[in-house]
Every structure is written in structure tokens, then in C-alpha cells.
Design goal:
Layout: H1 11-39, H2 46-61, H3 63-66, H4 71-93, H5 119-134, H6 138-148, H7 154-161, H8 165-183, H9 185-191
Helix pairs in contact: 1-2, 1-4, 2-4, 5-9, 6-8, 7-8, 8-9
Length: 205
């Protein structure tokens, strides 16, 4: 039987997967992986583990259907897997591991703070945001992470979570308000989540 009948990726799927990674690995996927590692307070080296594990799962479980989807949907699915994998790694650690500023990624000789929004975020806000996120209900945390860390639109979050766009918007507003109360709007802005004062338009940035 063909790979398609088994629901497994075909040679054509493999080609589309490799092309997709050539375009988006450095541009989108690696930066988001580092942001997930930071917000989980994992060592920076965990970022590539998060990304590689998510990519393997997407390839094995989803790519045979994603191969015909647009890049926005592909990215959204990978970001959702990254969110889940990063939670798994955090729980496996069993405790918060503070990421010291000098442990943040220095990828190919570039600024080690490239993958977070500012030096303040790297040095202090990340710990505050990570603790605040951990106190949110699971559903609210998932939604605000997909919006604020991965940059997904409300419609893509709805697709990934199975909620309606209206429900996503309301939960996003509640999560944003709760985080702002816990850590302050300036801290959220430094980390990037503060951009949610306007809903993302048109999917991933």
C-alpha cells in the first residue's frame, strides 16, 4: 500500500517538509523555541530539544495532512506542539530552573538577547512572567502563550484548541487582565506579551 493510504508522509511530503524548514527554521521556529524555553525557566539548551521533539511529532503525526495546508497553519500546528513539549519538559524537571542571563542563547555569534524582546526581559521579567503564567488556568495559559509567545491569531488559536474565536478572545482578555494585575503591564510589554493590547491580525507575524 502507498504511504498515503497508511496516513504516513510520502516522498512529496518529505520534500515539502524540508522546503518549509529551510524557509522558517531560523526565521520563525528557533526564536519561538527559545522563548518557550525562557518562559518555562528551562536552560537555553532546552530550546532545541523543544523544537526537535515538536518537529518529529508533527512529521510523524500531522505532516501528511499539513502538506496541503498553507504555511500559517503549518506554523500554528508546530507552535502548538512546541507549547505542549515545553510543558512536558518543565514538568519533567519537577522544579523551576532559573535561566541566568549568561545562559541565554548566543546563536552563531549573534546577540544572546536576540530571541527575547529586551535585556530587561532576559534578566528579570522572564521570571515574573513565568511564575504568573504558571498560576493561570491551563486553558487561559495555552491561549495567551500561543498569542503572546508564538504570535498566533485568534482564528488560528481557535483552530488549534477547538474553541470558537469568541471564546478565544474572551479567555485571552481575561488572561491578559490577570497577568497585568500580577506583574504589571510594563513587564508584559518588555516580554512581548504586552503587544496583545491589539489582537494579532492575519496569523503569525
Amino acid at each position: 500500500m502507498s504511504a498515503e493510504r497508511h496516513g504516513m508522509p510520502s516522498a512529496q511530503d518529505r520534500a515539502s517538509f524540508e522546503t518549509f524548514l529551510r524557509v522558517y527554521l531560523e526565521l520563525k521556529l528557533i526564536p519561538v523555541a527559545y522563548r518557550y524555553a525562557a518562559v518555562r525557566q528551562l536552560p537555553s539548551a532546552s530550546a532545541m530539544d523543544i523544537l526537535s521533539t515538536a518537529l518529529v511529532r508533527v512529521w510523524e503525526k500531522q505532516w501528511h495532512t499539513l502538506a496541503t495546508e498553507n504555511d500559517e497553519r503549518r506554523l500554528a500546528t508546530i507552535f502548538r506542539f512546541m507549547q505542549l513539549v515545553s510543558l512536558e519538559q518543565q514538568r519533567k524537571e519537577g522544579r523551576a530552573i532559573v535561566t541566568a542571563p549568561d545562559e541565554l542563547p548566543d546563536c552563531a555569534g549573534r546577540d544572546p538577547y536576540e530571541y527575547v524582546d529586551s535585556r530587561l526581559a532576559a534578566e528579570s521579567a522572564v521570571a515574573l512572567v513565568a511564575e504568573a503564567l504558571s498560576e493561570l488556568p491551563d486553558e487561559q495559559r495555552t491561549i495567551i502563550e500561543l498569542a503572546g509567545i508564538a504570535g498566533l491569531s485568534v482564528s488560528e488559536i481557535a483552530t488549534q484548541t477547538g474553541l470558537t474565536a469568541t471564546n478565544v478572545s474572551s479567555r485571552l482578555s481575561r488572561a491578559r487582565a490577570r497577568l497585568k494585575h500580577m506583574v504589571g503591564g510594563h513587564v508584559l510589554a518588555e516580554f512581548g506579551i504586552g503587544r496583545l493590547s491589539k489582537e494579532p491580525e492575519g496569523g503569525t507575524r
